[in-house]
Amino acid sequence: MLTAHRQSLISSTVALDCFQRAPEVLRRIGDEDLTARVYSIAGEIARRSATQSAEFLGRAPELIARFHARRERQLGARDLSEGAGAARRLLERALALTALFAEKAGGLATEFLSAFARLPVAARLEDQLKLLDHTHAFLERGGGIALQYFQVAARVLALAGADGLARWTDLTWRIALQDNAAVYNFLKLTPGVLEALAQTHGPAARSLIRQVLEVVRQVSERSIALGIECFRSSPRALASATVEQFVQWAQSGLTLYPKDSRRAQAYYALETQASQQALRHMAGGVTLDRVSQTLRLYILGMTGRSVTIRPLNHLPDRMSVNDGQTIYLPAAIAEFGEEEADFKLYKVLAAHAAGQLEFGTYARDLPELIELARELRRAHSPGEEASTSEPVTFSTILALLPDRELAERLFTTLENGRIDFLLRHHYRGLRRDLDFVRHRMHQRRPPLEELSPADLIVEVLFRLALLGGVAEEVRHRLPHLVTLLENIVDRFIRRVDATVVDSLRATHLILQLLKGQGALREAEATSEQPAAEELKTEAEPEMGEQPVHPRVLTERRPRPTDRIEPFNFWIRRHRDVEDVEWEPMQESPFAEELEAQELEPGDQAFYYEEWDHELADFRTAWCRVIERPARRGARQFVQAVRAQYGPMISSIRYQFQLLRPEALQKVRGELDGEEFDLQAVIDYALDRQTSGRVSERLYVRRLRRQRDVAVSFLLDMSSSTARTVSPRSSRAGASRPSKRIIDIEKEGLVLMSEALEAVGDRYAIQGFTSEGRHNVKFYIIKDFDEKHSPEVEARIGGITYQNNTRLGAAIRHATARLMRQEARTKLLIVLSDGRPYDHDYGDARYAREDTKIALRQARMAGVIPFCITIDRESEVQLRDMYGEVGYTIIDDVLSLPERLPSIYRRLTR
Predict the structure, then answer these.
(1) CA 405 to CA 413: how far, in whole Å?
(2) Cβ partners under 8 Å of residue 877, min gap 6
(3) Which candidate, 313, 200, 208, 167, places its Cα nearest to that of 564?
(4) Number of H helices, E strands in the chain
(5) Whole-angstrom Cα distance, residue 252 to residue 529?
(6) Fewer C-beta neighbours within 10 Å, C or N terminus of the chain?
(7) How many angstroms separate the CA atoms of 490 and 486, rounded?
């Protein structure tokens, strides 16, 4: 055999092993022609590596068997027999492409065949063949890029459909022509972006994705880098804006920053306040933040139900579980192009969302739901056991139905119709707004001939369930389908006692009736788009021929109308993505910043802006501060400090006790009180005898005075505090040992704790360190409402140096915590070496400017910041950074413990 001969040239042992396994390989594949193709591919791989060739021979039979098994598991027996020819053709094309991978990239052929075996079975044959054609074209860019394209494209096909895949492929090809590094990053981004759009926009996601890709294509024509940033930020943008606003925002960026690439990149990344304000203020539509309070009062007035209204980007991970008090609405609406009409649509959607809570859309573990789940498992998954830990909801039922995507769309429409009927029945005052929106929606329905068969069925159901019926023309063209769906709507939905279970049963019934009946064929005859089984592929080029570029393939495909159904915003799309066994790609070698670390149990994450002096703007939600309890150490540290500074501690406690106010203070000259003010009475008598003009303020009141101070100590725990300092020779330093800066700071905190316990001020001790903007660690050593205790002493003993100093983020978080304290005087004392630095904190000036702005923000919020630093060498930079607030530089670091209490007394006197 040629394969064995080529292997023997590199390794005779491998060649002999593969030759001996040939009968077993043939038995497992079960087809001589396919086996010959597999050995031919292995022979090509053997030109580069005998080991990789042997690995391919070992895995290929298993992968081919997996391909057949997945189809058998997903398709019924009848469908499987009818599709046998299609499966054979698809597999042969895949093996031809595998051979090209072997020729161009050796062992990557095995990885490609493995990815092919995981291809979604539900995809149409035409779409799968087109996917192979696109992958063939990408082989021009290299085997690695082609493999990554195929892996991601399979995901895109499941999430965005065939048309979305075509547009995305066109964009990917444009990027690949310019830069392999850029296309790598784009491929890496794609699954997460599309998943986010699918999760938050439900059944509208496919249409939305098409529009996003078109916008990104326009931006990419100006700059590939800007196009990728626009794509990356699209889920965030569309969580708070309409599609129209997103399009305007993206186009505006091209004119705002034609030459300033750095500002343009920050704009498309939605990192700056200016960019976010531009997105919100784009013309068109009504935003939720403007009308949420009005909508809440509207629902309260019409239904008597008090609800919380939140935007869709705050949806919980599992939308089928609701707290019964919160409704989720689009962040913006621009459906009708008129503010008044769009506001009425908001009112109707809010009423529908409140109706879902009232009429049980999110019901859990109803006996009827549990019984329906049992029935469906017996019918569709007889061997599958029910999960005992998960509640049974509408989502549970939908997961058990065949054709999950169509089932979800049918259920959404039916449930919307049920809620609409019940709202009209129970709340007649809503009818005017419901009728207005119904009339407007009637005017905006798409022509039926433009829809695919599945879309046409859902459209007819939508008109029957929500718009009151269909026109006579539609009834005449689709008599069987209209009659079928009309009977189901009347039987299950238009009843005052209908529940979510009725909507689910109606969904199941429609799926059953459509299969094999005339309604689907009727829909296919009406639609100008061919049904799945009628699709014929174009002439298929052999894999050895010159590939057709993805852009050409894209232009051949008709594209359906891009529209988003506003009533379907509430349900998350659970596409058949489980068919795609996604394997994450390796981390990009082009990443410039440290990734966010996973939170530990008990951690809390907070996000803060950061000032970019070059942009002259804030990068919003740029830094993640992770708040966590400080680790415990040994109490012996605190005990040793007390022993060393015993006399000084006694003196400090005495001095601070003098600052404690008297329990009661006499206030003279009051109109009433507990006793007379003797001097005021004498003055009263004299004035009456002389001038006759007297004061009635003759009393003394005793008022309780309190020292109203809250102070936050913020301790720098960066690695630079590990430096050891020696005592100055001018002082009696021979008897004082050298110490690390971090230990000196800790000693100062021990003395300050003693002082503050004596005076009674509320105080918190916090430390911080950082590893990039996503990982600013903020340790709570002692909180404001926590008493000084052995536990606190153990945490002080556990303080140690760690990483870097992202000072601005730490100051902002300390300020936010301090602002929650009810105190007249709020003081923030920062103990640092005065050198802010982090991996992605820009240059030295960037860090200083951000720190300066953070301190200014604290001062404007009513906090008194004061910085204590030990770096005399950088005094000019320190004056620039801290000049707007108080600061001091301590020359003799070892004197910090004894100087800290005196500094505090001066600040709070």
Answers:
(1) 13
(2) 834, 844, 848
(3) 208
(4) 37, 17
(5) 36
(6) C
(7) 6
Give the dihedral sign, CA 689/690/691/696: negative
Q: Give the type of residue at 319.
A: M
Closest CA to 721 of 626, 640, 802: 802
Reported as type and span, the H/E element at residue 309 is strand 308-311
Give residue for tokens 């209204």. 309
Crossing angle of helices 50-74/2-10, nearest 10°?
140
CA–CA gap between residue 901 and residue 654 (Å, rounded): 12
SS3 label, residue 699: strand
* Dihedral over alpha carbons 713, 714, 719, 725 (to 10 degrees): -40
Alpha-carbon Rg for the chain, nearest whole angstrom, is: 36
For 232-267, how does the pLDDT look when each residue is reduced to its tens digit (9 = 90+)?
Answer: 999 888 877 778 888 889 988 888 777 788 888 888
CA distances from 575 to 284, 399, 871 (A): 31, 10, 58
pLDDT tens string 769-796: 999 999 999 999 999 999 989 999 999 9
Tell me which of 129 and 283 has the higher pLDDT: 129
Q: Where are the beta strands (DSSP E) in 793-843?
A: 825-832
Residue 883's closest CA among 845, 847, 846, 851? 851
Q: With contact defined as beta carbons under 8 Å apart, do 158 and 128 qualify?
A: no
HSE-CB at 295 with a 13 A cutoff on CA atoms is 31
33 by Cβ neighbours in 10 Å (0-12 / 13-18 / 19+) ranks as: exposed
Measured in degrees and rounded to the nearest 5, phi and psi for residue 618 equal -85, 140
Contact 695, 684 (CB under 8 A): yes
Query: What is the rounded distance in angstroms from the CA atom of residue 241 to the CA atom of residue 270?
Result: 13
Phi and psi dihedrals of 888, rounded to 5?
Answer: -145, 150
Instruction: Please state, in angstroms and rounded to a whole number, the distance separating the CA atoms of residues 132 and 269.
Output: 33
Kind of pairing, strands 332-333 and 286-287?
A: antiparallel
Neighbours of 585 (CB within 10 A): 15
Q: What percent of the chain has pLDDT over 70?
A: 78
Residue boundaries of the structural domains of the chain: 1-118, 628-659+707-908, 664-704
Give the separation between CA 139 and CA 137, rounded to whole angstroms: 5
Beta strands of 29-99 (E only): which ranges? none
**Which residues does residue 725 pair with via DSSP β-bridges, in sequence order?**
739
Amino acid, single-letter form, for residue 378: R
* 3-class secondary structure, 269: coil
CB-based burial of residue 871 (10 Å sphere; 0-12 exposed, 13-18 middle, 19+ buried)?
A: middle
Lowest mean pLDDT among 234-243, 700-709, 788-797, 843-852: 700-709
Residue 189 CA, chain-centre distance (Å), reads 13
Distance CA 326, CA 336 (A): 26
CB atoms inside a 10 Å sphere around CB 425:
12
CA dihedral 75, 77, 78, 81 (to 10 degrees): 90
- Distance of alpha carbon 191 from alpha carbon 369, whole angstroms: 33
CA–CA dist 625, 810 (Å, integer): 7
8 Å CB contact between 256 and 244: no
pLDDT at 488: 94
Q: Determine the distance from the C-alpha atom of residue 877 to the mean position of all C-alpha atoms in its chain, rounded to a whole number.
A: 38
866 pairs with which residues across the strands? 829, 886
Do 761 and 709 touch, CB atoms closer than 8 A? yes
What is the assigned CATH class of domain 628-659+707-908? alpha beta
Question: Which whole number is the average pLDDT over 632-641?
Answer: 89
pTM of the model: 0.59
CA distance linking residue 789 with residue 773, whole number of Å? 33
DSSP 491: I
Structure tokens at 147: 């493999």
Q: Look up residue 875 and give its amino acid.
A: E
98-157: pLDDT as tens digits: 888 888 888 788 888 888 888 776 667 788 888 899 999 998 888 888 899 998 998 888
**248 token code pair:** 């305007």
